[in-house]
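Supplementary Text 2. Reproducibility record for the structural model of the 295-residue chain.

All settings were left at their defaults, and a single model was retained for analysis rather than an ensemble. We include the record here because the model underlies the residue-level annotations in Supplementary Table 4.
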Amino acid sequence: MWRESSGENRGWVGLGDNVDHKMKFRSKKGQLPFIELNGEEIADSTIILRELSSKFGKDLDAALTSEQRSVSHAMISMIENHLVWAVACWRTKNMDQVLKGYKVNLQHALGTRIPAGILNFFFKFTFGRKGAKKVKAQGMGVHTPEEVSQFGCADLKVLSDMLADKPFFFGDEPTTLDVVAFAHLAQILYIDKETPYNLRDYMQENCPNLVGHCSRMKERCFPDWDEICSTLDINTHLPKPEKQEEGKEGKEEAKESKESKEEKEGDKEKADKEEKEMEKDKEVDENKEKEKDGK
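Retained model, structure tokens:
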């Protein structure tokens, strides 16, 4: 989830702010990721890229010919509507490997202190079950694991052949296809090396140019990649407010602040009590004056 900082008094930093949704919030379409741009919600990666390109005048495909744009569209469609389902199918059948391979901390992701064992069981049962239904409905889920792996490897081979020995798919500069490809290839390549995964092994052994492509995209777009992965903060380049160390002086200040607050509260209670007594005395005096006037 991402928000663009164009409104006043929203407390967002820089151009935009990444929001930790704790796996609770989705777009109105039910999709992730989604962004909020000038108060308008935009979901689906393709639409997001298009809207941001239009908003900020940054067309990654400006130098492409009409034919290259068509090829780019076809390749992106293959990635987002075929390769992604081969990956999703493997995940639904290997939930334990997903948690270990991507080092998922469900307590952090969900913002809860429920024991990890219970969360892992819930995750595998709920997300695995939902994911299995989706891949089956799409069609990929009806195939055997071996067949699904062959589909995924074939897609990787197509991308590898297209990239050839070029730095990026259409030359020396990245385009939308490079961005989309990296977003999905990184999920295959950068899973923990101890986790058995056919698509990663195939890429490393048969598509070294795709491995190099991921490295180039990572270095260009995410120079703070290691820090992002360790802190889970995608805004590491933005300044953070300094954290005050709570040492002896901090504790003493907190103690003094507490005592001061208690003293103020005591003084207020005392003042209220005296005010009530004064009002009571005033009422008594007024009654006496009325009795005197009546006589």
